[in-house]
Amino acid sequence: GMARFLAVQLARIGDLAQTRRLLAGLWRQAEKTGGAVPPAAGLFGLTPKAREQAPGLGQVPDTGQLHRQKARHASSAAVTEPKKACEKKPFSVRAIFCYRKLPMRYYPLYVNLHGKRCLVVGAGQVGRRKIATLAACGPDEVLVLDPAPPADVVAALSAVPGVVIERREFTPADLDGRFLVIAATSDEESNWAISRECAARGILCNIVDQPEKCSFIVPALFTQGDLTVAISTGGASPALARKIRQGLGDFLGDEYGALLVLMSALRPMVLALGLPTEKNSAIFRSIVHSSLIDALERGDAVAAENVLREILPAALHGDAAGLIAGALGHAGA
């Protein structure tokens, strides 16, 4: 369960002390429950001999052949047979991962670019898409470097607020004061140089379609008004991420953007009433789980107002018509 997941994550990032403490807790749990080996401990394939050698675990009583069989069964279901090289070394948490290589995982987040200075190297078709996405997020500046951009591209980019384009090659000095960098060039040597320079300075860097050179990857995005859904395959298949994004359009219609407009306007009204947090949460949950979304999809203002009034406190009933009109106006835009 969760303990198994945490143990894997801690070991992957090399936090040996934390992982050992977690494993020790799992074995203490085993003792309290009559010696049954927890599934998370079974993941690590700890034999009695390995447990004796494990720093921080101490001695764990031999609970009998039945429990050892459970441990072996849990271990074989989760890991492959350890390599001989692992068996010859003293037990350590890092040795666990001689069993198998775990996949790379990325931490999903949305970054606030307001007031930040960004850099895009390459103004080709892909680079221009990246520039447009960055510029729409309100950074202080997006510097674009390209040695030979077409004149129409220069004109178009120069008209975008916050975008500065220069006809020249990248130099390391261009990274001074940059928060985020995207390289969209076809020059492998340049991509590696940018990646290494960013890594040395601790700057977020994305090399388009080359995740091995990136400190972050850019997911496929589906947007519906203020609703943004990010889809990532961890760099394994951007094409599949794009296919999933396209499929979301069949499920998330304009009514979801309309509902989000309504919720954005309604939230401060509800909070201003000074109701308990639990009551506010119940109101918001009731709205999103009600038939309001169906009424918005049909464009049925009367039905939508009725649903909203049934849920809202009486003090806000007079605002229902305006809220629905604003939401439907967005859907029809």
What structural keywords apply?
15 helices; alpha/beta; 50% helix; globular; 5-stranded parallel β-sheet; 333 residues; two-stranded antiparallel ribbon; 10% strand
N/C terminus separation: 47 Å
Q: What spatial order of strands do you see in the largest sheet?
A: 3-2-1-4-5
Output mean pLDDT.
79
Give the CA-based shape: globular
Biggest β-sheet description? 5 strands, parallel
Beta-strand fraction estimate: 5-15%
Given as residue ranges, the uncertain stretches (5+ residues, pLDDT < 50) are: 36-102
Q: How much helicity do the residues have?
A: 40-55%
| Order of secondary-structure elements | HHHHHHEHEHEEHEEEHHHHHH
Quick synopsis:
By secondary structure, this protein is an alpha/beta fold. It has 15 helices and seven strands.
Topology, pairings included?
Blueprint: H1 2-12, H2 16-32, H3 39-43, H4 48-53, H5 65-78, H6 84-88, E1 117-121, H7 125-135, E2 141-145, H8 151-158, E3 163-166, E4 180-183, H9 188-201, E5 204-207, E6 220-224, E7 227-231, H10 238-251, H11 254-272, H12 277-288, H13 292-298, H14 301-311, H15 320-331
Parallel strand pairs: 1-2, 1-4, 2-3, 4-5
Antiparallel strand pairs: 6-7
Helix pairs in contact: 1-2, 11-13, 11-15, 13-14, 14-15
